[in-house]
User: What shape does this take?
Amino acid sequence: MSESSATGQQSKPAAKPRKFQAIKGVRDLLPAETPLWNHVEETAHEVFGTFGFSEIRLPIFEPTELFARSIGLDTDVVSKEMYTFQDRPMDLPHEQQEVFGADFADRVLLKYKEHEIPHTEENRIAIGRVEEIRVELEAAGKKLGKDQSALSEYNRIFYKLVYQLNYVMLGEMVTLRPEATASVCRAYIQHGMQQLPQPVKLYYMGPMFRRERPQKGRYRQFYQIGAEVLGGNDSPGIDAEVIDMVMTFFDKLQLQGLELDINSIGCRECRPKYVEVLGDALLKVKDKLGADSQRRIDTNPLRVLDSKLESEQEIIATLPRMAAHLCADCAEHFAEVKRQLELRGVIYRENWRLVRGLDYYMRTTFEITAQGLGSQNAVCGGGRYDGLVELLGGPPTKGIGFAIGEDRLILSLQESGKAPAPPARDIYIAWMGEKAFATAIRAAKDLRAAGYRVELPATEQKFGKALGQADKLGARYALILGEDEVTSGEWTLKTLADGSQKKYTENELLEYLREANAPAQQQL
RNA sequence: GUGGGCGUAGCUCAGCUGGUAGAGCGUCGGUCUGUGGCACCGAAUGUCGCGGGUUCGAUCCCCGUCGCCCACCCCA
Assistant: This one.
């Protein structure tokens, strides 16, 4: 379909079809990058597995309310960054609402009966009204044709019906997940995982969605690798092990310039008291703070602490600190987490200004930064969230977890040159003549079955060209199959790097390749 | 949402004080029908992001707009 025929314009002949472009903030991961992504993900499976974590795969979208409740209504993530839409039933399109008011209303009532429209309290009332008006309309319809006033009466009721239909929430509001902790908790509750041996240790990886302004290391569709420990107790040993696990994972990837910051932001008991003290202190120095920080005194005083404004640093240094206001339990817990980290040889930096942006965090919080990331240098953030499962309707459950920004992790690996080169171990089959093609097809099949990456050209090429192609594709060997090879049954294998070549029968060839590549395979 | 930088070939970029475009790399073909990387020759691909203005004439100057990047904010 051309642009002009769609819009009815005729002046511009044969307009070029639109050039599509990925939506702002989302991107393609091209073949040059995907081996690194796979390497990172495989390493995660491997390392997390050794810590006794199991993978969970979660939906990309969830009820909006799940995120609103867990992350917090006042957070930026929930209040302005979520991709949310109404999941309305398929056969209730928007446009027909006015045109087919009565018919549309009937379908809405049917879908409500079928529970395809949510049975919320609001909908119960709205649907009730729709039913009443529908009956009125039916009655008015029967009087139609008698006189002029019957028609205007019918119209009046018709529009009342259309108006009332707007109050029916046709479908549940759903949201593309901005993070996965809420989903993990939801799954824990939904599948009764509290019946499993506790704690339950889960990890996940996949895309998340936030509608932020894109910049280096920040995308609207971005990838996280995360893990959660749910249930059991809140022993500091769990906090330390979770942190130890991320650091082990990063070490294995040779991520450079790692810095681990930890803090305790207290619990429901002691944090509010501290926030109050902090708020009072902030009010006293309000005029020395920037506009953003002044605003936060009311909205979220803790956030003032991680301000990067140069001019505020001196003042912030004088503010009261959480550590001095932790309750006895929290203080002891934090001290023990630090001791356990030392026991594990995990190097950390205590950072009293580290706060977290999501509402559900409490006690232990941590953040890991890496080099080469510009201003978005956090590759991992996490912390304890003991009340969250209960908040989502589950049993009282302890919880701690973290999320790694995979895009940033990979960016850092690329910038520091720690991205391993993808293994190239290809065989290019240079064949000549129809007879040889049949042999080439068989050879390709056998070599592929043995696990080699084989390029089998679909059309015959000049010999020199074939070797040129093999070279450009980075193949390690060229398997030469011409008339000579087919008649003799001895295939020619050329090693592209040094130009040497030797003849083998098929069996000898497989044997030779196995030996030649054994060390390389072990490296993977 | 706010600020800054940048938009010329698939990529990296030239293009002087305005006269409607070039290079390198890459791609494809040839020199070269059983021996690749090199070299040489040749070809294709651009509404110079888009729209308007100034001008005889705009890739160049002005305005607007869109896109990309970076930073603030927030977060991973």
